[in-house]
Amino acid sequence: MGVSPIDPKGGIQSAIALASRATGIDFNYLLGQAQLESGLNATARSSSSSATGLYQFVDQSWLAVVKQHGAAHGLGWAADSITQTASGRYTVSDPAVRQQILGLRKDPQIASLMAAEHASDNKAVIEDSLGRSATGTDLYMAHFLGLGGARSFLAKMESSPDHTGASMFPAAARANRSIFYDQSGQPRSLAQIYARFAAKLDQGAAATGGATGLASTTLDAPTTTVVAGAGESTGSAHAWARATLAKLNDPTAAANLRQASLFRPTPATARLAYMMLASLGN
After folding, report:
1. Nearest alpha-carbon partner for 179 in 135, 140, 214
2. Residues with Cβ < 8 Å from 230, sequence gap 6 or more?
3. How many angstroms separate the Cα of 258 from the Cα of each of 31, 84, 186, 244, 253?
4. What is the pTM of this model?
């Protein structure tokens, strides 16, 4: 029932790579986020909230994303068990099933898939709201402040980068003082907070062998010709291509993808071959 667990000692990066391939969300972004959130500890648990697992989902956020995306990844039983009340709260009538669903946060493969799907949802809304491509840091702001908070943060930063974050988000500032204030107690500006998150994401990816720079550049910037599949946007095709080529340069991840039958004759394989040939011709 559901997706089979992956050995947390040796399979976390493989789980993240598979989630990246399944959703088109950049591998290095997902890797940096996991490092920043939990230090790649699949069973991490916050001492101050219900946040649990590789991506530190709190209970309500986890139930929401599983309700929306679980069925697409073999978790239909879980999605069907979750209901949303008139007030917007997600509930599970059977306490044992609720704990089982919440426990899935400790499975790195499932957690990575749900984190990638959540990032994909946020990416679409942010890009529509701001009228530009989203960066890895934009997506992390949505994870940190919630989608509404991130939209307010990013819109205000575009017009007034020196505006202080604590004045906009007093509750978040009280709970995360080191983020919103410097060592002398002075409030950080929106631009400073954003830059710190960008650096932390890049450091998180680099610490575990990933690439840097993706936290502060657009995730859909094309680098060469890529053929989009049926019903797929060009941006999604480029995201898939970058993530796939990055994994092909990683022997461990490449081996894992071979096991996942990436190289069987499929439309995706043909698209990758076309992209590689186009790249050689540049």
Report:
1. 140
2. 267
3. 20, 39, 51, 12, 9
4. 0.69
pLDDT in tens, 229-255: 545 444 444 445 545 554 444 444 444
User: Can you tell me which residue has the tokens 């019903």?
Assistant: 231
- Tell me if 104 sits within 8 A of 111, measured CB to CB: yes
Angle between helices 59-69 and 95-103 (to 10 degrees): 90
Q: Give 167-178 pLDDT, tens digit per residue.
A: 999 999 998 999
Contact at 8 Å (CB) between 154 and 130?
Answer: yes
DSSP 3-state assignment of 189?
Answer: strand
Max CA pair span of the chain: 59
Name the residue among 204, 216, 242 with its Cα closest to residue 141.
Answer: 216
> In the predicted model, what is the mean pLDDT of residues 72-82?
97
* Residue 200 · residue 141 · CB < 8 Å: no
User: Do the beta carbons of residue 165 and residue 157 sit within 8 Å?
Assistant: no
Write phi, then psi, for 164 (nearest 5 degrees): -80, 140
Strand partners, 181: 187
Q: What 3-state class would DSSP assign to 52? A: strand
Q: Which two tokens stand for residue 54?
A: 């590789």
Ramachandran quadrant class, 214 (left: phi over 0; alpha: psi -120 to 50; beta: rest): alpha
